[in-house]
From TrEMBL, chain A:
Protein name, per record: Oxidoreductase
Organism, scientific name: Actinoallomurus iriomotensis
Keywords: 2Fe-2S, Iron, Iron-sulfur, Metal-binding, Oxidoreductase
Domain of life: Bacteria
UniProt keyword Oxidoreductase present: yes
Organism taxonomic ancestry: Bacteria, Bacillati, Actinomycetota, Actinomycetes, Streptosporangiales
From TrEMBL, chain B:
Superkingdom assignment: Bacteria
Gene Ontology molecular function: any one: iron ion binding
Record keywords, A-Z: Molybdenum, Oxidoreductase
Pfam families: Ald_Xan_dh_C (PF01315), MoCoBD_1 (PF02738), MoCoBD_2 (PF20256)
Name this protein carries in UniProt: Xanthine dehydrogenase
Organism: Actinoallomurus iriomotensis
InterPro entries in alphabetical order: Ald_Oxase/Xan_DH_a/b, Ald_Oxase/Xan_DH_a/b_sf, Ald_Oxase/xanthine_DH-like, AldOxase/xan_DH_MoCoBD1, AldOxase/xan_DH_MoCoBD2, AldOxase/xan_DH_Mopterin-bd_sf
Keyword Oxidoreductase: yes
Amino acid sequence: MAEMTLRVNGSVRELDVDPRTSLLDLLRERLGLTGTKKGCDHGQCGACTVLLDGRRANACLALAVACDGSEVTTVEGLGGAADGDEPHPLQTAFVERDAFQCGYCTPGQLCSAAGMLAERGPSAVTADLTDDPPLTPEEIRERMSGNLCRCGAYVNIVAAIQEAAR
Amino acid sequence: MNRVEGRDKVTGRARYAFEYPAEDVAYVHPVQAAVTRGRILSVDATDALATPGVLAVLSCAEPPALGSREDAELALFQSDQVAYRGQLVAAVVARAPETAREAAEHGVRIGYDAEPHDVLLRADHPGLYTPEKVNPGMPAETRRGDVEAGFAEAAVTVDATYTTPTLHNNPMEPHATMAVWEENGDLTLYDSTQGAADDRDTIAEVLGLPPERVRVVAPHVGGGFGSKGTTRPNAILAALAARAAGRPVKLALTRQQMYDLTGYRTPTIQRVRLGADAEGRLTAISHEAVEQSSTLMEFAEQTAAPTRVMYAAPNRRTTHRLVRLDVPTPSWMRAPGECPGMFALESAMDELAVAAGIDPIELRIRNEPDVDPENDLPFSSRNLVACLREGARRFGWEGRDPRPGIRLDGRWLIGTGVAASTYPSRRMASTADATVEDGDFVIRIAAADIGTGARTVLTRIAAETLGTAPERVRVEVGDSALPRASLAGGSMGTASWGSAVVRACEALLKNGERGTADTTEDVEGDTGFSRHAFGAQFAEVRVDLDTGEVRVPRLLGVFAAGRILEPKLARSQFVGGMTMGMGMALMEQTIVDERDGGFLNHDLAQYHVAACADVQDIDAVWIEEEDPHLNPMGAKGVGEIGIVGTAAAVANAVHHATGRRVRDLPITPPKLVG
Ligand code: FES
Ligand code: FES
């Protein structure tokens, strides 16, 4: 077991963890933060996306011990209030636009979108690589393609992100 | 209306099966067969049992007592025979998930006597036979008139073979269960299931318990698409492991394990023959499907069934033949039968249109039947023609130049295609309970909301029947302790549960306090009509001249599905189905390992499902359809028809763009270049 400190949704947690434990399993199994989902455990679906020191990351690909001293924001903390009672504009837009069906990819989509909106610079679909492109639907689709949705809610996910970004 | 549980889903509060808290919970990790056919000679779990934190090992070395072995996929550890690579052969229970996994992967040595295997479906397989029935209880063969005579008199014919690969449902939530044995011997399972009541009954039977001692809880389910419609081994394994460990046990199959253990769509080989006169009127239709099942159990998909209702023709035949291979048992995947079958039929109709020089929409309209062409029953409603016309108008079909391979935009070839959709509109008996509590209405029914929006649409149905606002209605679903209801499958949910909710609410209005309903009799009266939803799908594709990459800038579906109860949610269902259909057209396939058995690409990096960047403009609309012969709501199901016909529309558009007819899904770049 290894000692570590993690700041999760604003509160500091002192933890003793098995070095084999992923950040995802730490959140879900130890800290009871089951909002972050496990869809593949291999970095292939995005369901486990959280904000790790402000950047989006797949929690299934991070060993918990390697996150010692980091700050993690999960879907439960996205709105800023620990009880989720102050929804983030993305959360509101997802509900309004019906940007999910089963809801299992949704926390990952939300954290990924929140991280994506804070990112700068071009993507693979940006015409001019020196550009910091506007957030067109095409840019959103490209930047959100690490988050699979088997229910096929992409059309509404893109619309919701556009709305929240306004 | 927004989804009533929407807020819970976007804040992470909605709990799925694996996420319930329990004291002192343990974890179980499966061990899967490493041969494709053979016998287990020995199980050596010494290392696993010596691992600190390991609580128990299960295997056929000590077969756990079961009440029924009838479902061979659920009769865990009862036999030393291996029926397919990846079958459950042992499992390790431990205090920590990491320990269970490590001990399962390295601490259990299984000795096998491997036998030669046979995993490849072929149209000339000597083991092919005609099953007695196809899913869900339909005849395997139908015949009318004389098809050979019909082909002989035809002015134009098409005779083509279409193939579809093994496909996996891949819901985003893995199949997961937490099993808790109560002190009195009752069992509670938090299980990811499409039907709590049926799941409870199956689990009770397999474990040899009376059903009332088992409870299945599943308020939120992260998708299923058919794969959670039947009880899966994870539920049984969790229960057995919890019994062995003497504490609650959690199990979530890994994404890789899901490919072997949770069902899949059978690969199909379909020969379609069409004959038509010079005006395009069909003289004969023949649809012969070849598909597979496992050596354990028969599952026969109704692949040719949609051909029985689509087009008029005096001479017709549909057949299904099956071969039992050393593979897992196939099962339901979104629109079993209709989905692969309509790829073949609707591709063949496009080929006929090309051969006859007739517009593909016009060809379909000319073959519109007045009554169900196989049983002469009137359709309760049938608006395929209206869908085709409305779609043509919205999509801008008029003036389309039918010549293939002539539209070039830079290095992109452009084409458009159309295909029809259909899906049966059935319902099953359900019960429901409606009460007034603290001035609000509470509806209880063991329905399932797997992302379809069942909770929301039932709220709306109840509110309308009661003449109140949806905010004053609370609907409880997803628990076998609630009044018994049918499962979420076959696009029957809204029709089945809605019927029970309407009746229960009507009863409540009568006596003012409480209403109950059982729709068994209503459903028995559902005869005398052929009931189906219809639709038309339009695709525009761009095909890269050099790489063969296919992009789909536009996909439009126009559906006739009775009364649409919740427009926002219905549209999501249609579009979701079409999105999956586009994935089927262009990328989805599970590759069978001919040499070693099992599936090769069993994860989401290698089994490609449509991602956000693949989806551009997908839209679904519907036409107003009044149908008094369905159910009190006048609604047809919308969960599956969206995936029916999409692949054909895309394939037909690819032909229009390139002149290449791809009859073997998915349409990957190598099939379009060289
Ligand atoms: S669970 Fe981490 S990417 Fe799928
Ligand atoms: S909402 Fe079900 S997977 Fe995205």
